[in-house]
Design brief:
This protein is of the alpha+beta class. The chain contains ten helices and 16 strands. α5 runs parallel beside α6.
Length: about 350
């Protein structure tokens, strides 16, 4: 297998080296891939050295834990919110915009694992909150869990594109449907160091999610008659509700982006939504870095099963659960997408 060198989201973390190092398939270390020289371009602690020091074993494997369901309620007929009690250290590791977990009912086997984006984190309880749309067998089984759920994670590769965690600058987030969950979470985390504007679909579901989980200390309602209502807060960011299917509303979004000149544009939602928004906002490439939902079929999360592997227009084979931050969204949603083999459907459909 010809493995290219990528920047793995787990490299240098407490989960590195992982199982891929044991099998000689490390996605970053060229020596662990069997090559005779080091050309990994990794500037942190040597992965090979860590692997040898650890007795040629994977470090700190993610193990599922049975956790208590602290609260559970429906936002709409097919969407539930779970607050799950976890250890404080686990909650701290979940505090990054692209974090997601694998959940399943204790009554089911590992085939029922469901990848779910983190919606909110509390360090005082401590707990992690997720939102789940009930669609088929996996999520229906999870919906039946009342007291406990099995949790595995956290994982870091929930978004595609260059890293923007703790980046200073202007960030524009466009989200719709279940994409509002990572959108709100990213907005809450990044607003302390960046100017964040979150544009959510103008619909009851998104508005209710914002009302419940938008966390800034201060905000006030603004907006003129005839304009979409927005929430503004002291750090300089705001949340705006727009109808993405309206040409007039989309032009307002583009007009605002031309004035604010965002450094990062984040698009979160279904594959159809991402494709439409990516084309609509294409005028802002390459001045802004684009980031999108990692909507491939996430299965194991460890890069072992290959379910999330894609072949890019350049012929590179990439395991998206591990190397999503090495991929330019242009490969998946832009003009290059016609030559990209994405053998998956959006991961929000378990």
């Amino acid at each position: 297998m010809n493995i290219n060198t990528y920047k793995c989201v787990d490299v240098g973390s407490e989960n590195c080296p992982c199982e891929l190092a044991v099998t000689g398939d490390c996605l970053t270390c060229s020596r662990l891939q069997g090559r005779d020289r080091c050309d990994c371009d990794w500037k942190g602690v040597c992965i090979l050295n860590e692997f040898l020091f650890n007795g040629r074993k994977a470090n700190n494997k993610r193990k599922e834990k049975e956790c208590a369901v602290l609260s559970k309620y429906h936002i709409s007929g097919d969407f539930i919110v779970l607050e799950i009690g976890v250890q404080k250290g686990f909650a701290i590791r979940c505090m990054r915009p692209a974090a997601y977990l694998f959940l399943r009912s204790p009554k089911c086997d590992h085939h029922y694992d469901v990848p779910v984006s983190v919606l909110d984190v509390s360090l005082t309880r401590p707990s992690v909150t997720v939102g789940i749309r009930i669609l088929s067998a996996k999520t229906k089984a999870l919906d039946e869990a009342e007291k406990n759920v099995l949790v595995r994670g956290p994982y870091r590769g929930g978004m595609i594109g260059r890293k923007f965690r703790n980046r200073n600058g202007r960030i524009l987030i466009l989200c719709s449907g279940a994409g509002v969950c990572p959108g709100i979470f990213a907005c809450n985390l990044l607003s302390a160091s960046s100017e964040v504007t979150l544009v959510a679909r103008d619909a009851p579901f998104e508005k209710e999610m914002v009302r419940r989980f938008f966390r800034p200390q201060e905000f006030s309602r603004t907006g003129r008659t005839g304009e979409a209502k927005s929430l503004k807060y002291a750090r300089g960011g705001n949340i705006v509700f727009r109808d993405f299917e309206s040409a007039e509303e989309m032009e307002k979004i583009r007009r605002s982006a031309r004035m604010e000149r965002p450094d990062h544009i984040v698009i979160l939602g279904s594959r159809e939504f991402i494709s439409a928004m990516y084309r609509s906002m294409s005028e802002f490439r390459p001045s802004a870095d684009f980031v999108t939902s990692n909507d491939v079929s996430l299965c194991c999360g460890e890069g072992v099963c290959g379910a999330c592997e894609i072949t890019t227009a350049g012929g590179k084979r990439i395991r998206m659960c591990k190397c999503s931050e090495s991929v330019d969204p242009e490969e998946l949603f832009g003009e290059k997408a016609e030559n990209t083999d994405v053998r998956t459907e959006q991961y929000s459909r378990p």
